[in-house]
Amino acid sequence: MATKFRKIGVLTSGGDAPGMNNAVRAITRAALASGVEVIGINGGYSGLVNDNVRALTAQDVSNVVTLGGTMLYSDRCAEFKTEEGMARAIATCKKYEIDGIVACGGDGTFRGATDLSNRGIPTIGIPCTIDNDITSTEYAIGYDTAMNTVVEMVDRLRDTCESHARCNVVEVMGNNAGGIAIQTAIACGAVACVINEVPFDEAAMTEKIKRLKAAGKRGFIVIVSELIPDYADPAFAKRIQENTGVETKFARLAHVVRGGNPTLRDRVAGARMGSRAVAELLAGKSNLVICEQGNEIVTVDINLAQTADRLYKGKDGMEVLEKYSKEEQQEILAAGEKKRAYFKTMSALLDEISG
Q1: Alpha helices in 77-231 (DSSP H)
Q2: Would you say the pTM of this structure is higher than 0.90?
Q3: Which residues are designated catalytic?
């Protein structure tokens, strides 16, 4: 029989993502509709550590669907990773009779969710990260809004590139993940895209720009994912200019990509994932991540999700699979293979249609 829930907590942690508020709204209203009180935890896990919480009503979340950022605020709480900090977080849950928590964020948020579940506080994670870098889900809340922001900014740069016969190297956010970069490169008609997931041939790009320039093309866009050595840097733009003769500027969009009103997709994703998280929690489930796969909302064991993520990102070796069954190993490996195939396909598409 499922545990009888009286109160659930909701928090947003890590980098903010447009659509987080939509998830908080759905969580709050779905829980209240089931007769369960909702406690908003301010500032992510630091709110649990520092006893910074507040009750949420339907009215509290009535006008947040259009807002970017997070109404519950966010923080990166190092203290929560310590035993003392964890003990204080558990004490806060007991003080306010919080029976379970929905944690919205990225991989760091999910590590915290696992810690809470292992200490008796049922917790479910919702992927909210503009980087869309959670391996077990095809989509994370905030991704679409971030990409649309990049497209808007790059479209403006295209205008001035065309006017002055220039090239613009545009660095976009992604935290070592190339999802934003490759999708916006295709959408914006970029001549090239540099991401970690696919090898980049700078010489081939240089020859392409020279060939297109000779054929009469005036404006060029090159999209680069952040944190890539030698490319996410103004020096890359300087090399392009020196090697092609095309005047080249460097633009770093930075945290402007995080903000803004959420798009329809992120609003709906927040609603779907938030509602499902409450349903799973009230059914007695815990230690899950709410994922989107094939446009369906599904659940994945949080330990499998974290292992798949770390394995895909090269943070762990294959030996981590030994503790899982053959079926679980296949599930973990399939998630990584799907990601790799996606980037290979998208990169091939860009090469085919760019110019």
Answers
A1: 83-95, 107-118, 143-164, 179-187, 202-214
A2: yes
A3: 131
